[in-house]
Amino acid sequence: MALSAKMIDFASRASWIRKMFEEGARMKEQFGAENVFDFSLGNPDLPPPPQYLAAMNEVLAEEKPGVHGYMANAGYPAVRKAVAARISSEQQVIVDETEMLMTCGAAGGLNVVMKSLLDPGDEVIILAPFFVEYNFYIDNHGGVGRIVNTGSDFSLDLAAIDAALTPKTKAIIVNSPNNPTGQIYSREELTRLGELLGAAGRKFGTVIYLVADEPYRKIVYDGAEVPSIFQATNNAILVSSYSKDLSLPGERIGYIAVHPEVTDKMLLLGAMALANRILGFVNAPALMQRVVARLQGVTVDSSIYARRRESFCRVLRETGYEFVPPKGAFYLFPKSPIADDARFCALLQEQKILAVPGRGFGMPGYFRLAFCVEDSVIERSAEGFKRAMAAARN
Ligand SMILES: Cc1ncc(COP(=O)(O)O)c(C=O)c1O
């Protein structure tokens, strides 16, 4: 075999989401797009806010020599300054432009962090259910993912995390608001997690970084707040993007910021700038950096997601499903009425409803529904959810 055996293996079991996407495309062709209820993809369908186009036009009008050139691998200083100011107010810890870098989305940022932290065999704790790409990102840099389940309401199971820490643990990735559960970890949970990582580091003579993956920070419901990760521990690395809150996932623009007192700060920042370069990103897209610098504090109209969340929760409640209402992001993660979540997703598919089995997120027995769809799709899916539940009970 000419190709990497590992990649062939990864490709064969890579993604339930991709599988459902392909199924969806086939079904839409066969039955007509309006007759398929596709809740499989977390691809924001809201347009970017109107300020986006204005910013884009301003940036396009700035055409002058050098604007398309290479730059410092960490990004334009002026852009970093604008982003750092907003992060400082969000985190309630002052971060300056030298303590952050612009990246190709949160995905690029997470790869930069993993490359900078991991030696072969180092462990990274991820919390199930998790964003499925984490395992790949960790493996990309020779690390090993250690999976720890969350509690029954998807809150942190601190005792289980504690039990999973070893002298090889380099980091834990915490994603809040969470994909796929919509859970937001509380200030108390995060503070206790920070203390626990600090105590384990002292015991092992190591440093364990808390990596917060926060692309959904601005998409929250019922006035929920996402607590500051920088107040939970000094050894915090924040990764985020504009993919969800400005609906720009295809533009690949995000950032990393570190706590001003993070251990080995200068080495870490230098390693991350180099990683941005040698992973082949080189730097985050120039045009998009200049656009987002003008959009600090601007967000999509998340009241639209809030309205869909309300109607989806009502549809699921009325059709007999068990779920924890999401506090943020745009997913629901209900319990499958039968143990075999893939089988249940097949029953949903018979009703032309596309959902992703929980096993795709490391948590069988559940399924994920993304509400990046028109409200009417949610409303019209009720009958199908009811029939699938009846079929499961037979
Ligand atoms: C939890 C989580 N982290 C990271 C990402 C990647 O985001 P980006 O498009 O900014 O790379 C996603 C995208 O869906 C996500 O759900």
Task: Describe the protein's architecture and organization.
This protein has helices at 5-13, 16-31, 50-60, 77-91, 105-117, 133-140, 158-164, 187-204, 265-278, 286-293, 302-318, 341-350, 375-380, 382-393, and strands at 37-38, 100-103, 123-128, 144-149, 169-175, 209-213, 236-241, 254-258, 331-332, 353-354, 356-357, 367-370. The chain has 394 residues and is an alpha/beta fold. The strands form three sheets. A seven-stranded mixed beta sheet has the order 2-8-7-6-5-3-4, with helices on both faces. The longest helix is centred in the middle third of the chain and has 18 residues, at 187-204. It starts with a helix and ends with a helix. Bound molecules: pyridoxal-5'-phosphate. Residues 42, 105-107, 131, 175, 179, 213, 215, 241, 243, 249, 254 line the site of pyridoxal-5'-phosphate.
Keywords:
394 residues, alpha/beta, 7-stranded mixed sheet, 14 helices, 12 strands, binds pyridoxal-5'-phosphate
